[in-house]
UniProtKB/TrEMBL annotation:
Residues 1-29 form the DEAD-box RNA helicase Q domain. Keywords: ATP-binding, Helicase, Hydrolase, Nucleotide-binding. It is an enzyme of class 3 (hydrolase). Residues 528-539 have a biased composition (Low complexity). Its EC number is 3.6.4.13. This is ATP-dependent RNA helicase RhlE. Residues 71-121, 421-556 are annotated as: Disordered. Belongs to the DEAD box helicase family. SUPFAM superfamilies: P-loop containing nucleoside triphosphate hydrolases. Residues 444-494 have a biased composition (Gly residues). It comes from the Bacteria.
Length: 556
């Protein structure tokens, strides 16, 4: 189905032709007519399927139609001719937007301002996405498809100063494209008015669920009119997303281009079984054999991504990491380098890489297998886009066998074992190993002490509990004739005395200070035989404890 068959304005068709597109993708052919009708829609599609254009083109058309209807109503009331289109604004000086973000955002900034002051327009469309990179990509699409129109947009995300973003909002924006966190901050400051929203778009809804944005989304949507068109797009459809769709959408049309969590057809998948300490050396060797390819390596943690980059740099392999701890400017520079003709190895976490639209990614390496099978599909979706071929390689340790089995159950295919690299790989899959759980300790049995000074199985640093023999600083419970070491003192018979812990003697076991100037004995005299009938220790002196002298120090 060709774009020219769509009922959209000539300015949009011209922009599509400028990008060299003629035939719609399946998600575009199914979604665009439904959105043009004004119906709610829930779409399940992977990245790289033309999903952004599927909602950007009809959204821009509906916004322009709404603005035209308002102009015609005003012109008719003033006795002026109707049907006059709004001229596209001349590009403004982008110096005020130099801190806004990447070049796509600066181009967006030129649509946010004009040399000639105009009345502030109400925002008619709100697009929410989970990451800064995805927001920037969506903004670039709106700029590209709306470049022959007077569309204004504001790009809102964290990690950069909010000054240019507030300025764009003050000038008026037809479309706000934002991450939930920064948008909510600006809403609380009174910079955002959502009272005229006609179209609400939620992109990568499942990732926003995973990142904990749902409470923020609910607060934002509470400020949006209930009479609106709502579009929700997601790569997967877990039950929680379906519940949210039931809450936020009205009789939505469901569009699903491929079965949920189906990997791209032309992605060659393989797995290498490896010991945990052999992963990094296997990665080095694998990258040496695929030099100058555009490769993304996925790490489960930000700290792990940094460690991989450090090791590869020591091996003279150019690499850079993107994750939440990196500044926005650094992430943008890294992505620009990755898109160049001499790209570095890109090491990323799932959150930072989700939704990235980078062309010609040839290889994806799962250095750490993801804990959720759906994430695996998102990862390998970076390669094999738009019908191109790609390769996805996974490293699997004994602790990750359960994740591999979950991936194979979800995708309904067995991942073949990779060939070569025998020096660092295992000949057969290792036996699955469950990660150890830390259990709450119980009171120990007989004996004075547990591990590290605590109860057996208890928390480190706890007091030892038991009924057995004494430790290094005193006697055990019961008999009189304890055999403690230096500083020990016999305990009373028949009574229960708490055994002391290692290191510092108990107060009752410390040697007494001598008052006659003679050195104190290193240990009290230990008597043999049964304890006295009264249970008291024998007298070793006068029976009266001498007064402790105050230590006198010289002031000289």
């Amino acid at each position: 189905m060709k774009f020219e068959t769509l009922n959209i304005g000539p300015a949009l068709l011209r922009a599509v032709a400028d990008k060299g597109y003629e035939i719609m993708t399946p998600i575009q052919a199914d979604a665009i007519p439904t959105i043009l009708e004004g119906r709610d829609l829930i779409g399940c599609a992977q990245t790289g399927t033309g999903k952004t254009a599927a909602f950007a083109l009809p959204t821009i058309h509906r916004i322009l139609s709404s603005l035209q209807a308002e102009r015609d109503a005003t012109a008719k009331a003033n006795g002026q001719p109707t049907g006059q289109p709004e001229a596209a604004e001349a590009p403004a000086d982008a110096r005020d937007d130099r801190h806004q973000g990447n070049r796509a955002d600066r181009r967006a900034g030129r649509h946010q301002t004009s040399r000639r002051p105009q009345a502030r327009r109400k925002t008619r469309c709100l697009v929410l996405a989970p990451t800064r990179e995805l927001v920037s990509q969506i903004a670039a699409s709106f700029v590209a498809y709306g470049k022959h129109t007077a569309l204004r947009q504001a790009v809102i995300y964290g990690g950069v100063g909010q000054g240019p973003q507030v300025k764009a909002l003050q000038h008026g924006a037809d479309v706000i494209i934002a991450t939930p966190g920064r948008l909510l901050d600006l809403m609380n400051q009174g910079h955002v008015d959502l009272s005229k929203i006609e179209i609400l778009i939620l992109d990568e809804a499942d990732q926003m669920l995973d990142m904990g944005f749902i409470p923020d989304l609910k607060r934002i949507i509470a400020k949006v009119p209930t009479e609106r068109q709502t579009l929700m797009f997601s790569a997967t459809m877990p039950p929680a997303i379906r519940e949210l769709a039931h809450e936020w959408l009205k009789f939505p049309v469901s569009v699903q281009t491929t079965p949920v969590a189906t990997p791209a057809e032309k992605v060659d998948q393989s797995v290498y079984f490896v010991a945990k300490d052999g992963k990094i050396r296997l990665l080095e060797q694998w990258l040496q054999n695929t030099a100058n390819s555009r490769t993304i390596v996925f790490s489960r943690t930000k700290h792990g991504a940094d460690k991989i980059v450090k090791y590869l740099s020591q091996c003279k392999i150019r690499a850079a990491a993107i994750h939440g701890n990196k500044s926005q400017n650094f992430r943008e520079r890294t992505l620009e380098q990755f898109k160049s003709s001499r790209p570095p190895v890109l090491v990323a976490t799932d959150i930072a890489a989700r939704g990235l639209d980078i062309k010609e990614v040839s290889h994806v390496v799962n250095y750490d297998l993801p804990e959720t099978p759906e994430t695996y599909v998102h990862r390998i979706g970076r390669t094999g886009r738009a019908g191109a071929e790609g390769s996805a390689v996974s490293f699997c340790t004994a602790e990750e066998i359960k994740y591999l089995r979950g991936i194979e159950r979800l995708t309904r295919r067995r991942i073949e074992v990779g060939q070569g690299h025998d020096e660092y790989t295992l000949a057969a899959p290792p036996a699955a190993v469950d990660e150890p759980r830390q259990q709450r300790g119980r009171r120990g049995g007989p004996g004075g002490g547990g591990n590290r000074g605590g109860r057996p199985g208890g928390r480190p640093g706890g007091r030892p509990v038991g009924n057995g023999g004494g430790n290094s600083n005193g006697a055990g419970n019961g008999g009189y004739a304890g055999n403690g070491t230096s500083g020990g003192r016999p305990t009373t018979g028949g009574g229960r005395r708490r055994p002391t812990t290692g290191g510092r003697p108990a107060p009752s076991a410390r040697p007494k200070r001598r008052t006659d100037g003679k050195p104190a004995d290193s240990a009290p005299i230990m008597l043999d035989g049964p304890a006295p009938a009264d249970g008291k220790p024998p007298a070793t002196g006068s029976g009266r404890r001498p007064k402790r002298r105050k230590k006198v120090t010289s002031r000289l």
